[in-house]
Amino acid sequence: MRKSIATVSLSGSLSEKLTAIAAAGFDGVEIFENDLIASPLSPEEVRSRAADLGLSIDLYQPFRDYEAVPADLLADNLRRAERKFAVMERLGADLLLVCSSVSPDAVDDDALAAGHLYELAERAQRHGIRIAYEALAWGRHISTYDHAWRVVKAADHPSLGTCLDSFHIISRASDPRAIEEIPGEKIFFLQLADAPLMAMDVLQWSRHYRCFPGQGGLDLTGLLAHTVKAGYQGPLSLEVFNDVFRQADAGRTAVDAMRSLLALEESAGLATPPSPVVPSGFAFAELAAADTEPLRGLLGSLGFARTGRHTGKPVEMWEQGEARILLNTTGADRRSGPALAAIGLESPDPSAAVRRAETLLAPVVPRRRGARETRLDAVAAPDGTELFLCRTGHADHPSWTADFAPVPAGPPEAAASDGTGITGIDHMALTQPWHHFDEAALFYRSVLGLKPDESHDLADPYGLFRSRAVANAEGSLRIALNVAPSPEGAAGTRPQHIALATDDIIATARRMRQRGAAFLSIPANYYDDLDARYDLPAETLETLRELEILYDRDERGEFLHCYTATVGRIFFEVVQRTGEYRGYGARNATVRLAAQHTAHRGV
Questions:
Q1: In terms of DSSP bridges, do strands 28-32 and 3-6 run parallel, antiparallel, or are they unpaired?
Q2: pTM metric for this prediction
Q3: Which helix or strand (DSSP H or E) is residue 339 part of?
Q4: pLDDT tens for each residue of 512-568
Q5: In terms of Cα–Cα distance, which of 268, 427, 273 is closest to 343?
Q6: Radius of gyration of the chain (CA)
Q7: Whose CA is closest to 443, among 348, 384, 360?
Q8: Four-residue CA torsion sign, 426, 430, 431, 434
Q9: What is the DSSP letter of 325?
């Protein structure tokens, strides 16, 4: 289906918005009236610019507070409409969005509203223009799509139809199944927007918290299926009011918008892109550091052994159990210290995964490869993290580990050769730039096929900490996406972390401490509260206090975890899961954040 987007969804001038929309591959655009009014370009110049970019102008909007008003106001409104029709003719737009009135002057009279809409459509028809009538969720008398359709049906004019807006429909808890009762040719336009589920005033919810399909909690797939079943053949158009999007780069936001529509088409069965190839686990985590000595010491104390050195690059491989950490000195930022640069994801079909990523507009990372190096494709996540698609140790596919030559065991490798009980990587936590959080959630969901959990808002010493995890169905690959206020005010200052799995965190923590590992200090108050919450055996509570291990549980199992000190922009978490616990100890996040703040400030 054709794809369109409202200019109000993006930041920048009208010209910049059109450029970004075209570059992202959209077919058309909704021109928001305020964008045109504020533009130095004349309607003719906007029309020409859109045509040069290959964009049709699918809709001009909005026309407000028109119908069911006293005669003197109706005359004013019709005069206003004639002026808008003239602008639309110059613009080359033939569809005007009319919103249900919120004016206190409007009366509750469907017959009067239908008559007024008939007169507006009659005048519009003389200009070659059609009217799409939309029910605002906060409309004074008409606030549901089925009510708007009854008025349009009563008016019975060929140039009058309805505009369906997913947010207005779902936010009012209207049943979208009745959309199928509307003749497809009378659905003149379809606007799509997702939103997080929130208990708040619907107007404020709409004006500030809309997002692209797949980034919120609304069932757009079902609504779209009902609309197509009704016979709708127009464009899929995004109309998103979002404070973050209006501050972000327009080009990047437009690509994110297009990705959301491609994924929505797929979920509704309207398109068949390459199927998602869901990663089965972590192949490695790659840390970049100009000086790797602090990381070497930390890995050694955690029980990792250096097992290989890349044959063509300054990269070392450290292993314990199924966990692999790569240390890379190439391109590292000496000022900010060690940081997470890349993640290796185990994929059953790396080539198919790359095709999927390209179809969903994910940038494939160019990689310089030596003549004998294994091909290793990577895509860039929204925060810039490189995601390598691997198939480790399989006879049917070259393994990236073949590029590493074994190294002889020696200090600290010899001391760590017996390990500390780490079995693999449990999950990774990636702190996102604040304006890329929703984009990241959609990326991991649509490109990699991971399932998102609910979003959590947590207290942070500097404000609100927001977190949303994505995972595969088996729980063998988990990634927590976080966004938090940064006291330094600079992007990238918040650390990332790697969570290592163990079957016995008590024994593992003791072994690590014996090797000199430095752990995050947890306040005694936490353990007093823990005792009140869970009534743990005294001996267990004392052991947790001694080893500074945090504890959580739910109806499915338990979660025990502790944290190392931060090195540069990276720290490690050690976790033990029992039963079917699938969370991340979110209850303890505020304690960890405060403890890290204390450690950072030296308080």
A1: parallel
A2: 0.91
A3: strand 339-346
A4: 999 999 999 999 999 999 999 998 999 999 999 999 999 999 999 999 999 999 998
A5: 427
A6: 28
A7: 360
A8: negative
A9: E
